[in-house]
Amino acid sequence: MRLVWGVLLVLLFTLHASGVEPVQHINKDSIQLKLEQLKSEFGFCKQVPQEIQSVFYTAIGYYPELKDVNIKVRYGNIKTTMQCRPRWDFIFHKKQNRSYVIYIDKKIKDDYGILFKQLPLNAQIGVMGHELAHIIDYSSLNNFQIASFGLDYLKDDKKKHIENRVDLIAIERGLGYQINDFSKYVFEDSGASFEYIKYKMKFYFRPSQIREFIAETPMYYTDNELLID
Predict the structure, then answer these.
(1) CB 104 within 8 A of CB 75
(2) pLDDT in tens, 137-147
(3) Dihedral sign for Cα atoms in the order 155, 156, 157, 163
(4) pTM here?
(5) Is 185 left (phi over 0), alpha (psi -120 to 50) or beta?
């Protein structure tokens, strides 16, 4: 299985490199330097709450093919930190004309989950980058496949494969450090309930696995040296 994921990662990197250099720790100052340029470049067809625009536009900068894609970010009552779906009317549109909605959970129920606003900045960018990678994944599917996708997601093995594949997309685009920081926070620092951690362990890569994939991806090396916490 490790070999299969490794081959997939190499293929993804070869086909879809974003051209954006990985940054181990993205901070507020570096975001502000680029924010207006990113909003100008990626702001078409985007609806994003003001308070998370810096995170959204930093993450979407790693996905140049999403410049003209309709994306709305909104708060909702969901069972996980964030979730991305095609808008309900996808069936009436060609895949290049679909709209997508990214939901952010606004309230934890019964101590189950982690709120977006609890996360450190780098981890916020990581989970946002993960949701945007879902759009990349959806964009490769026709409408019939999108409908089937919903059924597949109800099956544990299929769901795990989908979420792992999406993490690999984000890693190969240059968001590996941020994906790792989100995973580290969830598993090591969040204080989330045992049930939630067990759910995340069932379907998502753990930090050690993410670091292995980063180590296998050439773009994360500077002068043949890999930098990772």
Answers:
(1) yes
(2) 999 988 888 88
(3) positive
(4) 0.90
(5) alpha
